[in-house]
Amino acid sequence: MDYMLLSILLSAILTLSGCSNETSTSEKSVATDGIKSVTISGDASLIRLNAKDDQKQQAVMSAKPSGWLSGWFYNDCKSKGEMIVSGQTLLIKAQNSGWYDLSECSTYLQINLPRNAGVTINQPAFKGDLQGQFADLNIETRAADISLQGSATSVRIRGDAFRTRLQFDGTTEPQQIDIAGRALDTSLIFPKGTSISYRIHSKASLLDTKLPNTQGAKPEIVISGDYARTEIQ
């Protein structure tokens, strides 16, 4: 039953990625040079995060029509959220259109950060694509589709139903990967020769691993959920 919940919630999230490609009528941007961490909260969003040095360091928030009614009823989508720099932290709060707005605008975030920036995401639902070298990743959500290509010093994810695909490139090996929720679909990919240790706590679990469980090895992987499908390679 919880896998049905996972499918329903993720299908709703994936509609974000299939939204119109039309240019937003308004954008907000802020420079991210010198930023050490970003905290993202508010309404559901499509989030693209890059942590690399060879790029223009800035964060852009835009809004685009996303609902099936948007083709019939058009209102200008405007970015209603906010982005604030506090010290070396970028604070982002997304705000989507209300239920009464028939254009159903959704928030898009394109965030370029310096390498080794920390990331905190606290949204009820989101689709996240992370690429590059990050410090700690800390995520709280109800439903999400999360992908990482790169590295992170640690990963902590909490939620109800979400899909996670983390592909580590070996730049920085995470010390701990801690994932917990009700219905989980998790794929972890490590460079050849990586030693790992793992523990899975679940009422119903499907595990497919090509790496041995080496006691005391880092990264240490802990996955906890009512229903968990886990692939490690």
Task: Report what the structure shows.
- The chain is mainly beta and 233 residues long.
- 7% of the residues lie in helices and 56% in strands.
- It has a five-stranded parallel barrel.
Question: What attributes characterize this protein structure?
Answer:
233 residues; mainly beta; 5-stranded parallel barrel
Q: Unreliable runs, pLDDT <50, ≥5 residues?
A: 18-25, 69-74
Largest sheet: 5 strands, parallel, barrel
**Cα-based radius of gyration, to the nearest Å:** 18 Å
Termini gap:
27 Å
Strand-pairing-aware structural class: mainly beta
Counting H and I runs of at least 4 residues, what is the number of helices?
1
Quaternary structure of the protein: single chain
As laid out across the biggest beta sheet, the strand order is: 9-10-12-13-11
Secondary-structure map with pairings?
Layout: H1 2-17, E1 27-31, E2 37-42, E3 45-51, E4 58-65, E5 82-86, E6 89-94, E7 105-113, E8 117-122, E9 125-140, E10 143-151, E11 154-158, E12 161-168, E13 176-189, E14 197-209, E15 220-232
Parallel strand pairs: 2-6, 2-8, 3-7, 3-9, 8-9, 9-10, 9-11, 10-12, 11-13, 12-13, 13-15, 14-15
Antiparallel strand pairs: 1-4, 4-7, 5-6
Brief synopsis:
This protein is mainly beta and 233 residues long.
